[in-house]
Specification:
- Keywords: Signal.
- The chain is an alpha+beta fold.
- Among the domains are: 61 residues, no CATH class; 58 residues, no CATH class.
- It is built from seven helices and 17 strands.
- The strands form seven sheets. Strands 1, 13, 14 and 15 form a four-stranded antiparallel beta sheet that branches.
- β16 and β17 form a beta hairpin.
- The protein is flat and about 70 Å long.
- Bound molecules: 2-acetamido-2-deoxy-beta-D-glucopyranose.
- The site of 2-acetamido-2-deoxy-beta-D-glucopyranose has 7 residues, from loops.
Length: 267
Amino acid sequence: MKTQLLLIAVISLSVNALTATTSCDCTELVQSADCKGGCTWSSADSSCSAKTVDCTAQTTQPTCDAYKGCAWNETTSKCAAFTACADYTVAIARACYAKDDTCVPGTAGADGKFPCKTGTITCSTFTNADDCNGMSPDDNSVCWFKSNACSQVDASKCSVIKDQDICEMACKWTSSCAAYTCADMTTADSCVAVMTDDGSGVNICTWDSTGSKCSDAADVSALTSSNCFDKTVGYYYWDGSACSECSGSSSNGYILAFIGFIAMIMF
Ligand SMILES: *[C@@H]1O[C@H](CO)[C@@H](O)[C@H](O)[C@H]1NC(C)=O
């Protein structure tokens, strides 16, 4: 009986959580205030669309390679739209990875330079933490350096991560790894939304200023034209009269994107 009650409590808890799985596509956004980040507003026809990157306007290698679709040509020292892995030759092997997700370094030529080629990342080829940490062989795993070796680690869900260091980049560690819950957020500023266990969506949170507590939002009815988009981290948008759920592109690989981002800053 007790177990059943507990089960019901757990089920109703998970039903109560307001989970959103698709963030807005730029074209869904109807007010300019929501049209930001990777989106740009056109006042001419009051529409929002995805920002297009002008690769040729990027003048340094890091900014160039950071844009998806752009790649730095070391021969000409110019940024241009990515063509094919094999079109690039680089002085430092790992620069190949920055050209595109599909590129890996080939064997150095007589000039000591590395031709890039199409291939997949193999964690065990990296021999130090700098090169290893944060590299991603596929959508669900990450390379991590421990015990003097670079291993491929399953990072498909917070709950499968066994390593505290990796866990704590995007998830919560308390003897095991789990996704953060709204209740874990202790300030009004951090009480916005938390990632689901597999990173495929978010649970929207709500702040109770009287009790200074963060909990799962039941709905978004209290959100307004000025905070709907931000308080749902872009999973809802103001449609002119209400805060509506986005139907746009789903954001996969959030955990990995996050780990990659952190690893880039750390190493
Ligand atoms: C880089 O520039 C060189 C020299 O102009 C050119 O031969 C090569 O094709 C370029 N590579 C790419 C990927 O555009």
